[in-house]
Structures are given as structure tokens and as C-alpha cells.
Design a protein that fits this description.
18 helices; binds flavin-adenine dinucleotide; 7-stranded mixed β-sheet; alpha/beta; 504 residues
């Protein structure tokens, strides 16, 4: 039985909405979460994507870095985030660059083989030493009221300020590294989920890089045990246990700045009033609910989920596929390849050699596979393709999806010793276990404007001092999702910050 008034009505039950609900309910506030779909979690969910196949894939987001340990501890979340032994593997001809977190000598030997000396590894250590230092300093501030630009500058120090916050990352990478492969590996963190030229003075790629290297003070990208659904499930449990009401199948139709929220569920249309409304939906959706037309952002990725009957063979006999695919496996993501793909996509064409990266969750956490699949040696494989902007899929969504998938698999096969198609598991109906999601698919099925994975382009982690970065033009309406300042990714940070804006 719903009440008619709440202290907070949260529009959307994505992981950030759940974080906000949990903090507010634990502080004794009456909270209602309204979620359009039949389940919570938004883009942080697990799904059995292939009928009859017992594999719970993280359908959209798949690795966790930005979720602060403080949020996990505050909310008593029962989740495990497992560190990957191998950071990355990048095939180069018949060899490849292996970054092994557990064996510095092996990493050094791999750098020497691929780059022909020690200079690139030294440059790599200097660069990531600098980002590690920034991570330690900046991560704790993400859960505090905003610092202004000057305070952020003195916090990170002059070298990091210049190279991460002021100069285009493309220019910095070209200056600090000489090898095209190494340059590309560094640049991918600046381009994941972001359609940008890293040399652009607008610095969008810099902002993307920053959020990819500061997560929880380490920048590590960890595997959520049980898949992303386990993270959202733990958050929903925490919110409910604290007394938050969560209504699924409840689509918000309109939001009034006075605090009134109209929604529709299976029983019809209703209104509730919140002293505050917390919008977990993207800013463009909030604008529509308020009766405005905001600008629609543009996402640029192809997500492919696969279940494999076995791991593909590599061209490099010196590396075990289980090592190569447990970290991030870079596919045609050299600096020049990234630039070419960006130019082709900007000109309205699907890149001829799409840059992409894959990893196999089940190598680090087999718990997402049923016992039979585990025994048979099956694995999940997640592919994230870059430079696939929504504009390429508007005219002919199905045809363009097919073309993008074909080009992406060909790109992957070009660096393997056998086609990945030969390794796909077949579902009981004989179909291969593979699904592809374009930005337009995400717009249609997940209600994500433009398919932008961060709700809108990422923003700098500083701003008007004393504010939380969640404020809107209306006093009673706050953002609590990825579109807030310091939002984006599976972090819970904007959910926490919106709750703190109410509680402090
Ligand atoms: C393919 C893909 C891969 C990604 N990979 C990663 C990754 O590995 N790591 C990472 O950190 N991040 C990743 N991201 C980004 C990350 O998933 C998102 O930025 C983050 O999950 C957003 O969380 P949120 O709670 O703010 O919003 P969302 O998860 O978008 O939740 C918003 C919720 O609002 C609901 N909603 C929408 N409209 C209405 C309405 N009218 N009424 C009621 N409810 C409504 C939606 O159904 C949804 O549940 C990825 C995203 C995608 C798409």
C-alpha cells in the first residue's frame, strides 16, 4: 500500500537510485523508488541471455572500479570484487604485450620483446605512477562536496594537472610514449564509452581517462563475483532492509518541480509527492519528464555478449589463452588504428577494422556458469567495441548492427589463430550464443538516450564549492544517476552524493 507523500521519490531503480534509497532509508527518511522495468539494476544487471544456457552474463556493464569501498562498508554490502591477475594482453603480429600484475619480470620481458627496449616500460611506469598518485588524492573527494578548480589543481600537483587536466591526452601520450601499440593501450581508457579525438582541445577524452584511472583510489578494474546483478541485488537488499519501498513495473510519466510525480503501473495511473525528487534517469529523460526537450547525447559502442565452448587459440604460443583473456584483450587498438576508426565513423562509416576489447569473466569468477558448463570448459566472453556512434545505426538499425558485428568479429579473428565463431557454444535450439547491442538497441530496450553509457558526456570532478554536483534548475529535483557531476560507470557515487545533499 503506497503512501501519497514521501520524503524522497526516486525516479529509476538503477544501481545509483538504489544507493540513494539505501542511504536515505538508513537515515530514517521515507523513500519510494519507481522503476519502469520489471527488475532493478538498470545497466548493472545479469541475464541468462541465451535460452536453455545456464550462464548469467553481465549484460551491459561488466567490471567495477569506481564503486568506493566506503559505500560498500557504509551499506554493509555483501559483494566481492576480485582483482584480475592479468591487466591486459595486446596481440601484435605473432607475439603480444602481456601486462601481468603478478609478475613484473614477465611484464618487462614482454615490453622488451614488443617495443625493442626498456624505454616504453619506464614511460609506462612513470605515467601510471602519476595516475596512481592522482587516484589516491582524488578518489576520496568524490564523496565530498565539490572542490573548485584551484583546489583540485593544488591537490593533484602541477605535473598531473598539466598532463591530465589541461593538455589533450593524445598529445601527452604521443610525447610520453613512442610505440604505437603502447600508445593505443593507454588511449583506450580515454575512449571507452566516449566518441572523441584524443587530440581535441575540448578534453572529453581526458575526462574519460581520468574516471578510468582513479576508481576507489587504485584505478583497478575488478570482476564482480556473481556478475553485475549481484552488485545491484546487494544494493536492493540494503535499500529494502533499511525500509525503502521499491516498486518495479512503475513507469514515471511526468515530474513536476513542486515534487509531484505521475506514474503508471499495472493498476493504472497514480501520483505521489516527494519533498525531493531524485532522478536516476539520464538528464535527457528528466528533461522530457519535466516537459522540456533536452539535448540527446550520443553513445558509441558495440557490446557483444558470447558464451564459448572453449577459449580461442592465440597466434602467440608463449601465452596461455586463459591468461590473455582473463585481463583486457585489446583488438586492433593501436594509436593509428584508433585514429583511423574514429575518422571513418566520423565520416558516417562503420570502421573497416573496428577497435574492440574482450575479456572472459568466468576465468576469474566461474560462479556465473552452471555446473555443466563449468565442467565442459565453457566461458563467457564480453566484447566492448569502440567508435560505433549511434548515428551509424539510425537509418537501418538491424542491417547496420549486422554489418558492425561482422566487421568486429573479422577484426577479432585477424588477431587470433582461429575464428571465434568456431568456439561459440550452441544453445539447445542450435543457435550460436552471441548477442550484439548497438547504442540504438540500448536506447530502445534500456531507455538510454543515444545509447550513451554514462547518460551524458563525463564532467570534471570539480565545480562550485560546497555543492554536490547533483543539483538541477529546480530546488526539489536532484540528479542521483550517472548524469550527475562525478557520475558515470558503476560507482554509486552520484547516488551517495544526492542522498548527502538531502541529509547534510
Ligand atoms: C554496454 C555497457 C557497458 C558498460 N560497461 C561498464 C563497466 O564495465 N563498468 C562500469 O563501471 N560502467 C560500465 N558501463 C556504464 C554503467 O553501466 C552506467 O554508467 C551505470 O550503470 C549507470 O547507472 P545509473 O544507476 O546511474 O543509471 P541506469 O543504470 O541507467 O538506471 C536508470 C534506471 O532508470 C529506469 N528508468 C528509465 N526511465 C524511467 C521512467 N520513466 N520511470 C521509471 N524508471 C525509469 C531505467 O529502467 C533504469 O533502471 C557500461 C554501460 C553499458 C551500456
Amino acid at each position: 500500500m503506497l503512501r501519497s507523500r514521501y520524503e524522497a521519490v526516486i525516479v529509476g531503480g538503477g544501481h545509483n537510485g538504489l544507493v540513494a534509497a539505501a542511504y536515505l532509508a538508513r537515515a530514517g527518511r521515507r523513500v519510494l523508488v519507481l522503476e519502469r522495468l520489471g527488475h532493478v539494476g538498470g545497466l548493472a544487471v545479469s541475464a541468462r541471455a541465451f535460452p536453455g544456457v545456464d550462464a548469467r552474463l553481465s549484460r551491459y556493464s561488466y567490471l567495477v572500479s569506481l564503486l568506493p569501498s566506503k559505500v560498500v562498508a557504509d551499506l554493509g554490502l555483501r559483494i566481492a570484487l576480485r582483482r584480475r591477475r592479468y591487466a591486459s594482453y595486446t596481440p601484435v603480429g605473432d607475439t603480444g604485450l602481456l601486462v601481468d600484475n603478478g609478475d613484473a619480470a614477465r611484464t618487462a620481458a614482454s615490453f622488451a620483446r614488443v617495443t625493442g627496449g626498456t624505454g616504453e616500460l619506464e614511460a609506462w611506469r612513470r605515467f601510471y605512477g602519476m595516475t596512481a598518485d592522482v587516484a589516491e588524492r582524488v578518489a576520496p573527494t568524490l564523496l565530498e562536496p565539490l572542490a573548485d578548480r584551484t583546489a583540485m589543481r593544488s591537490l593533484v600537483g602541477e605535473e598531473a594537472w598539466r598532463d591530465l587536466f589541461e593538455r589533450p591526452v593524445g598529445e601527452v601520450v604521443d610525447e610520453r610514449f613512442a610505440d604505437d601499440t603502447v600508445r593505443g593501450v593507454v588511449l583506450t581508457d580515454a575512449l571507452i564509452g566516449t566518441f572523441a579525438d584524443p587530440s581535441d582541445p575540448g578534453l572529453l577524452a581526458n575526462r574519460c581517462l581520468l574516471y578510468h584511472v582513479i576508481g576507489d583510489g587504485t584505478g583497478d578494474w575488478n570482476v564482480p563475483v556473481g556478475g553485475m546483478g549481484a552488485v545491484s541485488g546487494a544494493l536492493a537488499d540494503a535499500a529494502r532492509a533499511a525500509g525503502a519501498e521499491i516498486l518495479t513495473g512503475a513507469e514515471v510519466l511526468a515530474v513536476d518541480p513542486s515534487g509531484e510525480v505521475a506514474f503508471r503501473d499495472a493498476d493504472g495511473e497514480h501520483t505521489v509527492t516527494g519533498e525531493r525528487i531524485l532522478a536516476n534517469v539520464p538528464p535527457a529523460v528528466l528533461a522530457r519528464l519535466l516537459g522540456d526537450a533536452g539535448p540527446v547525447p550520443e553513445g558509441a559502442q558495440l557490446k557483444v555478449n558470447m558464451v564459448l565452448s572453449r577459449l580461442p587459440r592465440l597466434r602467440d604460443p608463449g601465452v596461455d589463452p586463459a591468461a590473455a583473456f582473463s585481463g583486457t584483450f585489446h583488438i586492433n587498438e593501436g594509436r593509428d588504428q584508433l585514429a583511423r576508426a574514429y575518422a571513418e565513423a566520423s565520416a558516417g562509416r562503420i570502421p573497416s577494422l573496428p577497435p574492440a576489447e574482450v575479456y572472459c569473466h568466468s576465468l576469474t569468477d566461474p560462479s556465473i556458469l552452471g555446473p555443466e558448463l563449468r565442467e565442459a570448459g565453457a566461458h563467457t566472453m564480453t566484447l566492448f567495441g569502440l567508435h560505433m556512434p549511434a548515428r551509424l545505426f539510425r537509418e537501418d538499425p538491424a542491417g547496420a548492427r549486422e554489418a558492425a558485428l561482422r566487421a568486429t568479429l573479422a577484426s577479432m579473428n585477424a588477431v587470433l589463430a582461429e575464428p571465434v565463431e568456431d568456439c561459440l557454444l550452441r544453445a539447445p535450439d542450435g543457435s550460436p550464443c552471441l548477442e550484439a547491442k548497438t547504442p540504438v538497441d540500448l536506447e530502445t530496450e534500456a531507455g538510454l538516450p543515444g545509447g550513451h553509457i554514462f547518460h551524458r558526456d563525463l564532467s570534471w570532478p570539480y565545480g562550485e564549492p560546497g555543492r554536490w554536483g547533483v543539483e538541477t534548475a529546480f530546488e526539489r529535483v536532484l540528479l542521483c544517476g550517472a548524469g550527475a557531476r562525478r557520475g558515470g560507470g558503476v560507482s554509486g557515487i552520484p547516488g551517495h552524493n544526492a542522498a548527502m545533499a538531502l541529509l547534510t
